[in-house]
Amino acid sequence: ALRIVEKRCAMTSTVRPFIRRSSASAGLVVKRNNQLQICNPIYREVFNRKWIEKQLANLRPYSEAFRAWYTSGCEDSSWLLRGNALKTAEQWAADQNVSFRDKQFLAASKQAEIEREIAEREKAAQLERERKEKAAAERARKIEESAREQAEIQLQNANESRQDAEKKLNKANKRIRLGSIVLTTTLLIASCLGIGALFYVQDAKNKADKAKLETELAKQEAKDAQIQANEANKELDAKNKLIEKVNEKLKISNEKTIELENLEKELKKQVDEANLEKEKAEENYNIASQNLENIKLESQVTLDELKIAEDKIVEAESQLEIAENKANEANQKLQNAEQEVQQIQEQWQNVLALKNLAQELSVAGQDAAAEKALKKIGMSFGIDNEKVQQAMRLSSAAEAYYNLGSLSKGIEDISLSNNILEEELADDKSPEKMSILVLNKQIQGNILEAEEKKNEAINSYQEALAILKEYPRQTNPFQKNNLPILTAVNVESIHRNLLNLIPLDSPQQDDRNEIRTSLKKHLLAELDNLMQQGRWQEADQKDYGFLVFAGDENESEGLSLEELEKFPCGDLNKVDNIWLRNSENKYGYSVQTSILSRIYQERGIPFYSVDWKSDSFIDWSGEAYMQFAKEVGWRNGDRETYRDLNWGDTLIEGHLPYNYLITMTLRKIRRIYFISLFEMCSLNPNI
Question: Dihedrals φ, ψ of 629, to 5°?
C-alpha cells in the first residue's frame, strides 16, 4: 500500500491534519505504526503522488521551484526564488495561510537574495577601492617623477651659473693682482730714474689709471657674478622646497592608502561579524522552527480547528473562484476594449479617407457632392451600430469615387459595405441598414451605367426598387424618426434612371408602367410632405413636376394641348385632395374652379369652355378673370408677378396652386387650362 510519509520538508500544517482526519473518517487510510496507509486500492490509483503534486502545484505559484528545493532536502539554493519571482511569491503568501515550509522556503530565498546583494555591494566596493588606490598611486608616482626631473634640471642650471660666476671672479682677481704688480714696478722704475724719467712716469701713470679702471671693471664683474650665484642659490632653495612639498603629498597619499586599507579591514570585520550574527540568527531560527514543528506534530487537532480549517479551505476555494471570475471578466473587458480601440482607429481612418475625398470633390468643383460627403460623415455617428456606421461611410466613399470617376474603387467600397450589411441584416432589418442597402444599389447602378453595363445597371436599380417595395416603413425618406440617409432625391433618381434605361418601345412595358406608378406614388408623398412642413413654394413647383410627369410620357419641356386634353383625371384628383387636406380646404384646383365659376354666375354669363383643337376659350371673359386673379391674390394692382405671391402661413382661398412653370409658356393664361381640365373631368371639389 502507498504510504504518506513526512520527510524533512513536510506537508503544510493546515492541510496535513485535514487530510489525516478527513481521510481517516472517509475510510481512505488507516493509522499503523504512527503512519497513514491507504487501504482502498481504488483511491490509491486515483489519489496517487501525481495527483498530490498536481494539487500542490495549483496551490503555489512557485510550486516547481519549491518541489525541487524540497526534493534536494532543502539544500539546493539554485531553486530559491530571486528578483521579481520572489516579490510575486511574497505578495501571494501575504494573503495566504501558508505552511512553515513555505515560510522557510521564502525566508531562505529572501536570505539568499540579501546575501547576493551584500556580496554584490562588497564586490563593487572592493573594485572601487582598488580603482581609487591604483589611481592615487599612479598620480603620486607621476607627481614625484615630474618634481624630481624639474629639480634636477634646475639644480644643474644653478651649478652651471655658479661655475660661470666663479670663473669670472677668478679672472677679475687675476687682473687685480696683475695691475698691482704693474703699478708697483712702474713706481720703482720712476723713483730710480728720477726727474729724467718724468716722461716715463707720466706714461706709467696713464697705464696705472688704465689698470685701476680694469680693476674696477673686474670688481664689478665679480659683484655681478656673486649676484647671479645668489639668485641661483635662491632658485635651488625654491626647488628644494617644491621637492619637500611633493614628498609631503606622497606622505599624505601613503597615509590615505593605509587609512583605506584599515577601513577595508574594518569593513571585512563587520561583514564577518554580520555573517556570524546571521548564522547565529539562522541557527536560532532553525531551532525555533524545529521546536514549532515538533509542537505541531505532537499536538492534536481539535474538532473546532478542523472545522475552521475546512471553512478556510471552502472560503479559499470560493475566493479562488471569485478571483478567477474577476480575472475572466477583466480579460474579457480588456479584449472588448482592444476591439473597441481597433474599431475606433478603423473608424477614424475611414472618416479621414472620406474627408479627403470630400476635399478632392471640392477641388474638382463638385461642391454639392463634397458637402454631401461631409454631411454623411456626421450622419454616420448617429447610428448606434458601429459596423453599420462603417457600411455607411464605405457607401459614401463609393459615391465620392463615382463622382470623381474612380469607378473601380467605388465598386470595391460598395462590395465591402454590402458584405457588412449582409452580416448585420441577419439580426434585424433596421431603417438604417435597409436605407444604406438601397443607396448602395443605386450607387452600384450608377457606376455600372457609367461603365456601359446596361443590363447589370438595370438589375441593381430593380433590386433597389424591390427593397423599397418590400420594406416601405424602413425606407421611407419622409419618416420623421428615420435618419435622412435615403432622400427623396435618391428614390426619384432610382425610378428615373430605370425609365431612361428601358425605352418606350421595349418589351418590358409592364415593368415600365409599374415603375411609373411607383414614381407617381413617391412624388405625391413628397408633395404631401412639403405641404405638411408649410413649404408652399416648393410644393407648388413639385406640383407642376408631378403634372408634367403624369401627363407627358416623354417629360418634355411642358404639356401640350393634346396632353392636357388627355390628362388622367385620377392623378389630378389625387393632387387636389393633397392640397385640400393640408390647407384646411383653402388651396386646390377644385377651390379655384368654384371661385371662377361663382364669378361667372355673378356676372350672368355662361361659364367658359375650351376648344382644344383651336387652342381658344369659348365664352371667355377677361374681366371675370381679372376679378378672379385679384380675389385669389395673384394680382397686385395692375401687375401679376410670381414674386408677389404669398408663401406664408396666412392662407388666401384659391391662392395655390399657381403652377409658376406654366407661366413660362407663351400664354400665361394657360394655367387656367387646369381649372378647365378640372371642370371637364366633372370631379367633385369636396372629395
Answer: -60, -35
* All residues at 6 or more sequence positions from 177 whose CB lies less than 8 Å from its CB, including other chains: none
Report whether 457 contacts 487 (CB < 8 A). Answer: no
Q: How far apart are CA 38 and CA 85, in angstroms?
A: 37
Rounded to whole angstroms, the Cα distance separating 252 from 139 reads 13
Stated as kind and residue range, the H or E segment containing 543 is: helix 536-551
Per-residue pLDDT tens for 66-120? 888 888 888 888 888 888 888 888 888 887 777 878 888 888 888 888 888 888 8
* Confidence (pTM): 0.52
> Any idea how long the chain is?
687
Within 10 Å of residue 578's Cβ, how many Cβ atoms? Answer: 22
DSSP 8-state secondary structure symbol assigned to residue 197: G
Are the C-beta atoms of 432 and 383 separated by less than 8 Å?
yes
Helix H or strand E encompassing 153: helix 100-193
pLDDT tens per residue across span 287-323: 755 665 565 555 444 456 567 766 777 777 777 778 7
548, 551, 557, 560: CA torsion to nearest 10: -130
Which helix (H) or strand (E) element contains residue 413? Answer: helix 407-424
How far is 117 from 86, CA to CA, in rounded Å? 14
| DSSP annotation string for 50-106 | HHHHHHHHHH-TTHHHHHHHHHTTS--GGGS--HHHHHHHHHHHHTS---HHHHHHH
Q: CA-to-CA distance for 573 and 551, rounded, in angstroms?
A: 13
